Amino acid sequence: MARRKVTGFTRFLLVMIILVPLAFAGAALYNGKDPIVEAKRLLGIEQTVSNDEPVSDEVRNVNQPSDTSTRNPTVSKDTRVEMEAMQRRIEKLERDNLELQKRLKQYDAEIKELKRQRSN
């Protein structure tokens, strides 16, 4: 059987195939995390939300009641005041958005009327 010579690049690839996963697992263990879970998260194999990661806005239920005092009675007063201020701001922005949509419809109607007059 003929013996083949292994090139330097082949040796490099073989070392990287072994070394990179070991280094990743070591870093995950050093940070106190499970390397298998971290690899799955990194590769997107399994989509789970862990307890130590913050939940994104897409995951939260958007249709929660607007009364902040009934949701979590242990929330501090400062946080509750800030949440109520944000809720008022959201409501104002929604009203502004509806007003702008109405104005846009009016402008569209005016444009159509001007085009109709111009074509006659």
Q: Give the DSSP E fraction (strand runs of 2 or more residues).
A: under 5%
Sheet of most strands: none
State the helix count: 4
Task: Give the topology string: H per helix, E per strand.
Answer: HHHH
End-to-end CA span: 92 Å
The class by helix and strand makeup works out as mainly alpha
Number of domains: 2
Helix amount, in percent?
55-70%
Rg from Cα: 30 Å
Number of strands: 0
Comma- or semicolon-separated keywords:
120 residues, mainly alpha
Per-chain topology:
Elements: H1 8-30, H2 35-43, H3 68-71, H4 77-119
Helix pairs in contact: 1-2
Write a concise synopsis of the structure shown.
With about 120 residues, this protein is mainly alpha-helical.
Give an overview in words.
- This protein is 66% helix and 0% strand.
- It is mostly helical and 120 residues long.
- Helix 1 (8-30) crosses helix 2 (35-43).
- The protein is elongated.
- The protein has four helices and no strands.
- It has two domains: 8-49; 68-120.
- The longest helix has 43 residues, at 77-119.
